[in-house]
Amino acid sequence: SNKKPLVVVTRRLPEVVETRMRELFDARLNHDDHPMSQAELVEAVKTADVLVPTVTDKIDPSVLAQAGERLRLIANFGNGVDNIDVQTALSRGITVTNTPGVLTEDTADMTMALILAVGRRIAEGARVILDETWNGWSPTWMLGHRITGKRLGIVGMGRIGQALARRAKAFGLQVHYHNRRRVAAPIEEALEATYWESLDQMLARMDIVSVNCPHTPATYHLLSARRLKLLKPDAIVVNTARGEIIDETALTRMLEAGEIAGAGLDVFEHEPAISPRMLKLARQHRVVVLPHMGSATIEGRVDMGEKVIVNIKTFMDGHRPPDRVLPSML
Ligand code: 8YV
Fold it and tell me: Which tens digits make up the pLDDT trace of 207-258?
């Protein structure tokens, strides 16, 4: 039909994205930017043709149960879709799309930044200046650990994992990875990456472990207390994926006990809440925490918005949207 679809967007998006959405759709933009409550989400799914949620909106079965007949598409503003009960959505005939590809390089940059920040005590050094406690240079003070030559184990060798591997190679790291499936030989060769079929065996040998897989029922607490214990005591853990993939309580306990040397975390199990224990660790050394900034670039957020628009337009034109989430991806 020629009628513009009613598109409900839960959060403020970059200006250019909102303008384009207003031109193309009957866009209901949220001017008071806040994570939507369950009641607001229910209201949205009752009236919308298309819902555009973000990571802060829990589209769970109880919300989906109240979806109106009109709701045909959930076009997630974000790559990870763990905020949506995709299984339930699909079973109700609702298509789900995400925004892959456009945040790959930015997230890989942030992962590398966390590796460097933990290894070279960047955040700690910056704090010394800000606290005005710097007493001058010393040969034995503020020593970190060399990055070059260390072994990096990437858990999840998708787009972001591979982008991280390219950067890691340039930094002289030895790249190792675990993935459900081994990546194609030419890619593996180009990255000079060593495949580990056994995650456990890989973990035991790495200096740095980076989590770069999606959060699904299969990866919830993939880095469990048992697996974290396999790490070398001088290893560091980096996570720019989802907090739920690591047992954060176990990680906290091991960091406190010095059984893991450090961590660089951009995501948390109960964000935006950070436990007081994690906070205390971050105030000491070798723990760097960031507020879910992996894809936070202006360019990235505009590209994500454009992806959302293309997905909606294609779907409304009666075609298969480019970034459909399939059950095989869950
Ligand atoms: C966003 C992300 O912070 O795409 C993802 O999976 O984590 C980030 O790009 C957020 O999820 C957007 O909804």
Answer: 999 999 999 999 999 999 999 999 999 999 999 999 999 999 999 999 999 9
- Looking at CATH, the fold of the domain delimited by 6-100+298-329 is given as Rossmann fold (3.40.50)
Amino acid at 143: L
**ipTM score assigned to the predicted complex:** 0.94
What are the pocket residues of ligand 1 if the criterion is a CB atom closer than 6 Å to any ligand atom?
A: 54-55, 77-80, 103, 292, 295
Q: Would residue 292 show up in a list of annotated catalytic residues for this protein?
A: yes
Pocket test for ligand 1, best of 84, 86, 293, 295 (most atoms within 8 A of CB): 295
Active site includes 271?
Answer: yes
Contacts 24+ apart (CB under 8 A), 18-27: 20/305, 20/306, 20/309, 21/305, 21/309, 24/309, 24/312, 24/313, 25/50, 25/312
Does this chain's domain 6-100+298-329 share its CATH topology with 104-289?
yes
For the segment(s) 104-289, the CATH number from 3.40.50.720, 3.30.930.10, 3.90.1300.10, 3.40.50.1000 is 3.40.50.720
